[in-house]
Amino acid sequence: MDFVEARAYLITQLRKEIRDERVLEAMAGVPRELFLPPESRPCAYEDRPLPIGLGQTISQPFIIAMMTSALELRGEEKVLEIGTGSGYQAAILSRLCRQVITVERLKPLADKARQLLQELGYTNVDVHLEGKVIGWPEEAPFDAILVTAGAPFIPRTLVDQLEIGGRLVIPVGSRYEQEMMRLTRKEEKETRESLGLCRFVPLIGEGAWGEESAP
Length: 215
Hints:
The protein is an alpha/beta fold. It has a single domain, classed as 3-Layer(aba) Sandwich (Rossmann fold), CATH 3.40.50. It is built from 6 helices and 9 strands, in the order ααββαβαβαββαβββ. The strands form 2 sheets. It has a 7-stranded mixed β-sheet. It has a two-stranded antiparallel sheet with strand order 1-2. β1 and β2 (about 55-60) form a beta hairpin. The protein is globular and about 50 Å long. The mean pLDDT is about 95.
């Protein structure tokens, strides 16, 4: 299979709805097939989520492009990603900002993503195993936070990890369907915008779904 040609076709299709050329160029430079198990690689450039093991998925490319664009990155930001998964989203973010901190609750996924990102030369990405607290307060504040799992509400702990003026993009709703939200932190209060409906695996941890809600 010609992955380069398939990737170029996918970017052409995404360009019909995504206007952020920096995001599209970043996605064009990341080999999605390498972030998938061998059996899923023939489907790497179909615009749909795919399984990566342990009940987790790699998100639909359109959703990735939309969420990443909503962060409004310009190149000098420090970005936090919640839910490393295979590392694909972190690889895209690394091409758009100064530093990526990405956290994952499942150690096998974190270890595999860390190794792959290092092998592919993404030197501005740090992968951590997430603890009980959602996020990575040790290196807060962040200019932008991207959450790749659905939460029942916007966790206050994540808002507190945002820089003033920073953006948080997160799916919020039930365990089965969510609304993509963008929160911008202000001096006095936050502003919230809806970016449309979506479906993600549950965000597990204090301030979201408890451990008993894990799939």
